[in-house]
Structure formats: C-alpha cells, structure tokens
Amino acid sequence: MKKKYLIGGVILILVVGYLLYLSFGSSVSYYLTVSEFLESGSEFHDTNVRVAGKIADSPVDWNAADLELRFDITEGGRNLPVIYQGAKPSGFKVGSNILVEGKGHPDGVFRASQIIMKCPSKYEPVE
Amino acid sequence: MALPVAILAATASAIGARIGPGWPTTIARNSIYVLFGLFTLALAVIIYAFFTRDFSLRIVVEHVSRDLNAAYTLSALYADKAGSMFFWGWLVSLFTAVLAFQKQGFHRQVKYYALTILAVVQVFFIALITLVVNVFEKQPSPVAEGFGLNPLLQNFGMLVHPPLLYLGFAGFAVVFALSMAALITRRAGAEWGAVVRRWAIFAWCTLGVGNLLGMWWSYNELGWGGYWAWDPVENAGLMPWLVGTAFIHSMAMRRRRRYLVTWSRLLIVFTFALTLLSPFITHGGIESPLHGFYGSTFPPYILAAILITLVGSSWLLYRHRDSGNEEKPASLVSKEGAFLLTNVILVVLAFIILAGTVLPRVIEAVAGVRITLDRSFFDRTCGPVMLVLVFFTGVCPLLGWGKAVWSPAERNAGYFLLAVLVITIAILVFGIGNWYIAVMMVCSFPLFIVLQEWYRGTRARHRARGENHFLAFLFLIGSNRARYGGFLAHIGIILITLGIIVSSFYNIERTATLDIGETMNIGKYELTYDELIFRQDNVRARAIASLSASRNGRPVGVMQPSYDYWFRHDDHFAEVAVRSTPAEDLFVSLVWTGFDPGDKSATFRVLVNPLIVWMWVGGGFFLLGGAVAFLAEDRQLYRDRV
Predict the structure, then answer these.
(1) Superfamily of domain A30-117, CATH level 4
(2) Which comes out higher in pLDDT, residue A34 or B11?
C-alpha cells in the first residue's frame, strides 16, 4: 500500500516538476530599473525584459493614425525613450510608476510590447 | 476605542470556558455579543461619517465625495486599506456571534474552543485596524471636499466582489476554528460534521462567486477585454478557493468513511493561511501591477499572523495526531481513489500558483536578481492540470464506493469516452483542428456524464412513482441535495472552463483610429463610426461615440462606448460597450479621442470574444449548486466520530 503511494507521489512530483521547469524557462523575464537597463548594453536586444521607472516630464507623442505612443521613462536621473503600439492607459501621467515590457534596440529606443501602469489606489489631492 | 480591551476579555473568558459550564461560558458568550455590538457600532459610525460627508476623517476624504451615490458611498469602506480589514473583521465577529448564539448538537468544549480561536482572530484584526492603522484616523487639516471613489471602482461588480470575498474568507475562519477545536477536544461527531459542512460550503460558494464577479468587473470595467491576468492579487483570491474546494471534497469523503482525516485538517489550515496571505499580497507584500493598496504598513503583521497560524496548527496536528486508525482506500479505481486524486490535483494547482506568485520575490531576496513571470507561465502549467481536473469531474460520479463494478451506465460512459478519445486523436493526428478543440472534447465528457446521471435518475423516478418528468427531476435533486448540488456546481465549472478556453484562444482583437463615417471590420462584424457626442457634468467630461454594428451584413445595434475625463482625478477612464449573445461578445472600448469638436477622430479597441457569456451562466449554475448543497439535511450521514 505504502509503496503504491510512494510511486504515485514520485510520478506526480516528476510531472509537476517537469511542467514547472518547461514553463519557468520560457516565461521568466528579467526585471530591471531604467538605470540598470541602460548599463546592460545590448544584452536585452533579443530577450524580453521588464523595465520599471516613472513617466518622465518630457513630451508624450501619440500618433493616432499609426497607433504609436512615444514617451520617456526615468529613474536614477537617467531617461529611456520608449515606443509602444497602443493608446495611453488610465493613470498615464508624469511621475506615475510604469513597467514597460519588451526589447531594447540598437537605436536606443525601447520597443515595448506591453505597458503596465502601477496605478496608486488612492489619488493624491490636487493642490 | 476600547475595543482591544473588549477583545482581551472575550479571549480570556473563552479560554476559561473550557473549565466547565456555568459562569465562564456565560461570560464568553456575552463578551462575544458585546464585541460584535462594539464592532457594529464602529461600523455604523463609519457609515454615518460616509453619508454625512464628515471630511475630518481620512477614510472619508480619500474615498468619498459629495456627488457619490449611496451605493458607492457604502462601497468606499472596502476601497480603503484599513476599511477593508475592518469589514473583514466585522464579518468574523458577526460569524462568531452567530456560532455562539446557535444551539449546536456537538460538544460544548468544541464550541468554546472554536470561539476562543475566533476571538483570537478578532484580536488580530482589531489590533491591525486600531494600533497599526486607525480606521478613525483624523485628516491633518480639514478639507471641504473629498477625492471621491476611484472611477474604476464605480461599477456593480466592485460593489459586490469584495464583500463576497470577505464573506468567504471570514467563513473559512469559522471552518478553521471548528476544525482545530475538534482536533483539540477529539469530540467531534455527526452534528459537528453537518455544521462544518454548511460553513465550508457557504464560504466556498461566496468565495467562488466573488472571484467570478471580480473577473466580470475586470472584463466590463478595465477595458482591456480580458478578465484574468494571473495578477498576484487575483491569484490571492483563487488559491484559498482551490484548497477550499479540495477541503470540501475531502469532507465529502469523511462523510462516508474515515478517510483523509489528517489530510483534510491540513487542507483547512492551508485554506485559512491562504486567506491571510491574500491581504498580505493586496497590501503590498508582493508587488502587483494591477491593483493593491500601496504604502500600507500591514504586511509584516500579516506575515507574522500567517506564521503563527501555520506553526500553531502544525503543532496541534502533531500533538493530537491519531495513529493508524484511518482507513485506506481499497483501490485507486474507486470513488475514494478518484476523490483522492482530484484532491491532490487541486492542491498541486494551488501550489503551482503559489510558487509562481511568491517565487520571483523569494529569488530576489535570496539571489538579488529581480525576475518576473509572465502569464504564459501560469497558462502553460495550470492549463493542462485544470484539464485533468475537469476530466475527473466526469469520472467521479461513475465510480462506486469501494471497488468498481461495471454497470450499464458506465458502459455508456465508456463508449462515449472512447468516442471522445478517438475523435480527439483523429483531430490531432490529421491536424483538422487543434489543441483547443481537443480540450473542448475533454470538457464534453463530464457534461455528458452528469446529464446521463440525471436522465437515468429522472427516468427511474418517472417509472417507479409515475411522476411527470419535470417533477421527477426536481424531486431527484431534492432527494440527495449534496450529490445533485455538487453536480450543478460541476456543470457551472465546466461551463466556466469552456468559456475561458474558447474565449482565450478564439478571440479576435483589433485597434484602429477612425474618423466619422469610417468603418472597420472584425470577424463577421462591421462597425461604422457615426457620431461623437460631448457631455459634461460637474464630475466628468464625456465623449460618447456611436457605432452602428452589423453582423454578416445584418444590423445588430448601436454600440456606445465612452471616453471620460474625470476632473478631480485628472485622468481618463473608458466605459466599454459590450453586446452579448450566446455565441459571442462584441466588445468595444474607446481608448482615445482628442475632445476636439473640430476633429472627432477616435481610437477604438474592438474584440470578439466567443462563448464568454457561458462563464457568467456557469457562475449561476455554480451558485445554484452551492445553494442546493448548502440546504442538504444529511447529518445522519456523518456516522463516524472524527
């Protein structure tokens, strides 16, 4: 009786472990800040990475015809220009925390496939 | 607030209650009532402050404004970090009072130990909302107007989703307390089983519906066209439900045999611990991009509570372990075996989600490398496991208790299963369809089984008693509510699974910028952008677009999504337009427009999501099944002392 459970358990662990291993490898992405990303050079031109920063106080360009959003994110005193195919999400304001996911590019402009706003749940008073 | 004092009194007397009946139990009961009274009074004070717009309180200033309607004013309570914990704590105190008030058939000691544990849980909540963050915190400088509720939270789903989750969490606290009390005293009997079962089904059902309503909210309000993103906060609500589901199934086993006693105790401990993990995640213990309360000081305290729960319960489990008087399943090919397997699968599922949620943070703490897992991790790991689970929903009702014997019904099922397998393999081998069709075939199996069981039962009644078919069907469900309630819930889960699978893999999405008069095509739909109307009140400026939609050339109606600028929040929020049919949803979101009467060009995000309606229909079945099972009177079924 005990043996049967043991074998079953081992098989289960192996299957789950294999599933985890398979998925972990392909779903994992590095998560850097803007300054860390800028120091990484060309490391993330081919692999997906998430970069965290704040929306910089520089012009935000939205091209409605091409559905292209261009903006800068900033952290540690350094700026990273970003291109994203899509409209501004709610909460997109200067100083908001943002996560951009995508790849770096030799021209220095980050190609984001996804942007995630880290919306504060409470809104600060407008002075 | 003198609440902590009251709590300590409650705890002390509840502990004293174990000495014997008489004055200690009276004190215990009364202090629990007083505690509930104080909690309710505090709740009333907060709600009164909400409605009178008392802007000297922080909680009112941050979430309420003068123009907010009554329902949303009430929901502002759980929009707040302290307020939500307060509401949860109040529910625990309500349930504790109910438990104290009810006359249970089970032993007095069990009851008072359970009350003790619940009183301790309340001490934790009260300490959190008075000592760490005060719900009644004053605003430093008075203001004339509050910020109002976050526009995203102004939706029916958000009105109901959080309270349902907290009902579920608080309900599992009661189940946990009763289980631990039974463990300490070893005096649980049939009545105990019936009471625990009811609380567990109540908690499980509210938590499940609460999660689903959260998905509904996300779909209808957030405007990204999806309902589930494997966000840590979403996972936090799902994990206790999964383990709770396993617990309910293991209880069903216990009703028949003395199986899995220790296992089901472990399950309830983990369920309770996971309900505590939920606020830990929501209050910023694990970074969540989608929602969460930032800058909350709760996480360390909650983590401490989780550790205490785990360590305390494992010590109890170890001390009161019963050695070797548990029955073992005779064969894996039996109902017991199948139940055991589903239990294991549910726990594995919860474990994978827990790993995916927590592991990146652990790796960061240990190795100093920050990584994230995207949702494909969860899709790839949980998808196959869930499928096996759905398959077992079909197998379980077929297998008899003890050793399996083939009956005509099982032969039928066998043929059906064979057909499913053949078609599935054919599809995969010849590449006619793809994996998703195979998945749908797998889902059809349990559906077939449930319908077959119903058909056979109804026919038997019809023949034996001459009842007409419809009545016979209703009486059938009435005759064994636990069993058929379970079937109803299973149908709900299968429908939800189907909705999820089909809508995630067969949806089409397009984003386009249109000028007035232009059209866009998506799937069988054609959308013509007719007009953009501007409206303004003192809360928001709205740009409401009108698009006439046609399907295969036939007009099906006008879609009116809007893009709203909320003055006080200085931000834009989209209100989506959804047209639902049993076959598919047309989902239109207005994501950008310049608010310029001269240039009314606007950007639309349009999705066609097939079969998504069935998720919500499935939720209805799930709720109905839970209700039927909740009403089951089967205390005589708990024959064994636990």
Answers:
(1) Nucleic acid-binding proteins (2.40.50.140)
(2) A34
